[in-house]
Amino acid sequence: MSATPRVGVVVTDTYPAEDPDHDTAPLVTALRARGVAAAPVVWHDATVDWAAHDLLVLRSPWDYPERLTEFLAWLDVAEQATRVLNPPSLVRWNLDKRYLAELADLGVGVVPTTYRTSLDDVRDDLAATAPDAHVVLKPAVSAGARDTGLFRADDPRALDLAGRVLAAGGVVMVQPEVPELSQGREKALYVVDGTLTHAIAKGALLAPGGGLIGGVYAENPQRVDVTAAEAEFALDVVRAVDRATGSGVPLYARVDTVDSVEHGLVLLEAELFEPALNLHVVPEVTDVVASAVVARLG
């Protein structure tokens, strides 16, 4: 490693106005204050010399679902050139939400989910659901609620969405609606280098009948308290990820949860390579993240 370590904070080149990257600028500033030559780098910028970096920290490559093949190829290039955190092996595992089934097998509570590769199977799931009950359909590879919909089980638009996902070569996840999610009671619990740092509630996102509330993906992050049970659950999830992948303690993890009357405290997703940390809401956590990055440089 060079006398002045060089860290690339991996981003992309454009963000929607309603979903900006609030994390990279303060993180880069905090790293520079610690003597690190840190700068944002666009993952698909062909002019970047990846080997010139001592470490790449994945932060907000949020256009990866539309460029998945390209992104996977970039991961190969990046890990051959230098060290990447979180590690590409963990990223590849985390890209496909079927990891939830692996974590369930390890004892982590999750929302009951089927993973379907045919429209007939999706149709059977919907037929087995009470017509006036609601279900959520989403692709197994997605981010930012892309191609995710909340529908009555008898709504033909549910099958339309499933058909689009399957036609694109995807796998359809079918889940029952969790009323607490529709009430905006999801909590994102953040674990940095094995320590719980904060929790964020971002509000409800899905509109009944398909699509997003307000028509765009727009979180409303608010800092919230964490119960002892939630804190232990988040750490249990991180430990289960390590058991499933052998990847060790991740630099960062966002553990999305909801405490449901029907299902109990369950994992919605474990975001392990590009979660918004919401450092603009919890600015004091910026130093925690920067210190964790510097520690990994050693």
From TrEMBL:
Species in which this protein is naturally found: Cellulomonas wangleii
Protein name: ATP-grasp domain-containing protein
Transmembrane annotation, as ranges: none
InterPro entries on file: ATP_grasp_subdomain_1 (IPR013815), DcsG_Biosynth_Enzyme (IPR053191)
